[in-house]
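User:
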Amino acid sequence: MSLAPKPFDRAIMKSAREIEILDEANGYVHRLLSQLAAMAEPGMTTMDLEQVAERYCKTEEVTPAFKGYSGFPACLCLSINDEIVHGIPSAHRVLRDGDILSIDFGVYHRGYFGDAALTVPLGKVSSRARHLMDGTLKSLKTAVDSCVVGNTLGDIGYAVQSTVEPMGYSVVRDFVGHGIGLNLHEPPQVPNFGRRGHGMPLTEGLVLAIEPMVCEGDYRVKVDEDGWTARTFDGKLSAHFEYSVAVTNGNPRVLGRPGF
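Assistant: Predicted structure:
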């Protein structure tokens, strides 16, 4: 979830045991995201997907992380086309051929939070939509590669920004990634823009939810009257991908995604 974390004094490092629990939590997240990505199709409503998520959480005995968080009313954030993030599921919102759908989901499991997101095509999407999704996912993978001891938060933001801006896209400034663990949102904030070598150093035990939100046009955001749904200022498309990542002494570890 991309709601900007509240300011804290310092990041909270995780032990090896805590990272294993976080891996379990994120495993639940990715399994549902994979299920929803496979089943989402034109003609369904966003509430249809929300109901699948509700049943999943009950069956797996995990708590949906977003429902009730700062008053958010659902398990899933479902954002279509020009909606960037925080879209609220509705029985009146019908998915259509050519749409792109961003699905953001989190759980609370054994005292820790998992959080991830992806954007999927519905039916036959335009080449420009597919290019935007591919570029956003590429920027996330590049950012993950930057999550090594000795780098900085600025290196992560730079990785996203330097991947998508040469493609003609922009990165959202109003919403950022965040630390994650005992809380859904922990320090530090993780912007999707930055300068190499600047910001907080990355150290072993840091766990970050990295989530590029990339716009086809203007990066400015406007929020609907519901107080949640954030969309592009110019009505152009946006894509959103997110992994929770642990910084280790070796390679970055994408939590809940074995073999990444």
